[in-house]
């Protein structure tokens, strides 16, 4: 396959611009990241700086790969991370525009790499349960209703990649925060800290400068794990009931 | 900070304000529509004028009307503030911009600010043309069975003989339809009301409302222009 790539370069000699590259021999079985590896090998051979992009597991489970491909975070393929997107979904002769995730809360570090530490700070604000470590308890000692555990599992699928923020016209982090709040709030282990957790996480989300949710649902459409916006409704419920129905104030 | 103020200024609290004022405006539109449909009554405006008199003199309705003015202002001002903040949150934009959505109209959903601004301008013109003229006592008086009422019907009938105004009115209703197509169901989602059993009904009702109510509003000037000359 022959491809024309327009890639956002920022850092080093690049002030921040789309730079055009030609690739003449792309194997359709390559993943998108392997295609970029090939480009970088060519750039290194020409003594040019390679395109910086993030990747880790390349199995679609770590949430490290990012980038916006032709306007779609993780590319146009539904429920697929960039590393699991294969070149057979593109056509010979295609022009592909590759940009970093865009949000004020995700500053560009270099080229396609953005700093997503804002998500870490939101998790630090309350996205955990406090338990003493010790012997693992028996698997079925705490009965959990089937639907609740299914919803909690669905929410826990979130890999924290930030595609929701990249897709949202408002750069809102509500889908991420709602998934984290939901998967803990639905389970008995998460209940004791639920009221404090939701207030702390929303407060941190607001402090990071993410936008507000206007229910566009672009986040769900682009989420590589298909996290549903029903979680956002649950986050709203949790937040409203925590503010009005509990004595907690953070 | 006081917990209630903290809630109202949080991102979710600000959206809850948008949702509650929005739902109030949705309910108001139904009352407004039922009143306006009396314009189609071919009685020289008797039913409409007596209704208008009731709506402007009944103390309960007057109290609710102040709540209405306040809701429009809060919905507009808060909406603009959120719009501004959300644009700033994006920062540098994308070279290629696509918005896909699930279960809503992506184009309407991502342009609520523009749609709302057009609606606000429409409301200002609309209020100036009818409401303000009535408040300033610029209307002739009409007499029905010994009772006098301001002849609001007279200026409405004159306005709807103007093709330009009829077109402006119909286009504004189309804008309101798009705003409602997203806003109706969005208001419920913001309040956390998303449920496997009820949400499909809310979405269906939202679609019906967003089409039917603006269409009936738009029908009035079109009908009066064509058939009530």
Describe the fold and architecture.
- The complex is a heterodimer of chains A (250) and B (229).
- Chain A has helices at residues 32-45, 117-124, 146-156, 163-167, 174-185, 194-207, 218-222, 230-245, and strands at residues 3-11, 14-23, 68-69, 72-73, 95-99, 108-110, 113-114.
- Chain A is an alpha+beta fold and 250 residues long.
- Chain B is mostly helical and 229 residues long.
- Chain B has a single domain, classed as 3 helical TM bundles of succinate and fumarate reductases.
- In chain B, helix 8 (163-190) packs antiparallel against helix 9.
- In chain B, a hairpin with a 2-residue loop joins strand 1 (141-144) and strand 2.
- Classes of the chains: A alpha+beta (250), B mainly alpha (229).
- At the A-B interface, helix 6, helix 7 and helix 8 of A face helix 1, helix 2, helix 4 and helix 8 of B.
Which descriptors would you attach to this protein?
heterodimer; A: 250 residues; alpha+beta; Ubiquitin-like (UB roll); Fumarate Reductase Iron-sulfur Protein, Chain B, domain 2; 2 domains; 34% helix; B: 229 residues; mainly alpha; 3 helical TM bundles of succinate and fumarate reductases; 2 strands; 74% helix
In short:
With 250 residues, chain A is an alpha+beta fold.
Set out the fold topology:
The complex is a heterodimer of chains A (250) and B (229).
Chain A: E1 3-11, E2 14-23, H1 32-45, E3 68-69, E4 72-73, E5 95-99, E6 108-110, E7 113-114, H2 117-124, H3 146-156, H4 163-167, H5 174-185, H6 194-207, H7 218-222, H8 230-245
Parallel strand pairs in A: 1-5
Antiparallel strand pairs in A: 1-2, 3-4, 3-5, 6-7
Helix pairs in contact in A: 2-6, 3-5, 5-6, 5-8, 6-8
Chain B: H1 3-9, H2 11-36, H3 46-57, H4 59-90, H5 106-109, H6 112-135, E1 141-144, E2 147-150, H7 152-159, H8 163-190, H9 199-227
Antiparallel strand pairs in B: 1-2
Helix pairs in contact in B: 1-2, 2-4, 2-8, 2-9, 4-6, 6-8, 8-9
């Amino acid at each position: 396959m022959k491809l024309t790539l327009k890639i956002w370069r920022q850092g080093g000699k690049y002030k921040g611009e789309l730079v055009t590259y030609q690739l003449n021999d792309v194997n359709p079985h390559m993943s998108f990241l392997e295609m970029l590896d090939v480009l970088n090998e060519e750039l290194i051979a020409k003594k040019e700086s390679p395109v910086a992009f993030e990747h880790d597991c390349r199995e679609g489970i770590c949430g490290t790969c990012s980038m916006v491909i032709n306007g779609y975070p993780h590319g146009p393929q539904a429920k697929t991370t960039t590393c699991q997107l294969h070149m057979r979904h593109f056509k010979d002769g295609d022009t592909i525009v590759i940009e970093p995730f865009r949000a004020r809360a995700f500053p560009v570090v270099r080229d396609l790499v953005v700093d997503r530490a804002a998500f870490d700070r939101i998790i630090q604000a309350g996205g955990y349960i406090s338990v003493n470590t010790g012997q693992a308890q028996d698997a079925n000692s705490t009965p959990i209703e089937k639907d609740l555990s299914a919803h909690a599992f669905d929410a826990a699928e979130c890999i924290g990649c930030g595609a929701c923020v990249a897709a949202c016209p408002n750069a809102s982090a509500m889908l991420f925060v709602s998934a984290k709040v939901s998967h803990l709030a639905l389970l008995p282990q998460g209940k004791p800290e639920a009221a404090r957790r939701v207030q702390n996480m929303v407060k941190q989300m607001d402090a990071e400068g993410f936008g507000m949710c206007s229910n566009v649902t672009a986040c769900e459409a682009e989420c590589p794990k298909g996290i549903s916006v029903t979680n956002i409704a649950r986050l709203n419920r949790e937040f409203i009931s925590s503010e009005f129905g509990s004595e907690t104030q953070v | 900070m006081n917990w209630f103020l903290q809630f109202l200024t949080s991102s979710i609290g600000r959206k809850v304000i948008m949702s509650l004022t929005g739902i109030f405006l949705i309910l108001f539109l139904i009352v407004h529509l039922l009143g306006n449909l009396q314009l189609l009554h071919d009685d020289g405006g008797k039913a409409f004028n007596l209704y208008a008199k009731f709506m402007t003199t009944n103390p309960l309705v007057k109290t609710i009307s102040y709540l209405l003015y306040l809701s429009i202002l809060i919905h507009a001002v808060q909406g603009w503030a959120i719009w501004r903040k959300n644009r700033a949150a994006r920062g540098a934009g994308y070279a290629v911009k696509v918005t896909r959505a699930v279960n809503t109209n992506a184009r309407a959903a991502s342009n609520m600010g523009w749609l709302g601004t057009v609606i606000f301008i429409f409301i200002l013109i609309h209020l100036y043309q009818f409401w303000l003229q009535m408040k300033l006592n610029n209307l002739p008086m009409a007499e029905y069975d010994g009772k006098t009422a301001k002849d609001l019907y007279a200026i409405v009938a004159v306005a709807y003989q103007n093709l330009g105004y009829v077109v402006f009115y119909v286009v504004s209703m189309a804008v309101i339809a798009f705003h409602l197509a997203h806003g109706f169901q969005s208001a419920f989602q913001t309040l956390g009301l998303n449920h496997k059993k009820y949400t499909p009904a809310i979405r269906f009702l939202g679609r019906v409302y967003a089409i039917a109510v603006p269409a009936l509003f738009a029908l009035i000037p079109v009908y009066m222009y064509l058939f009530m000359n």
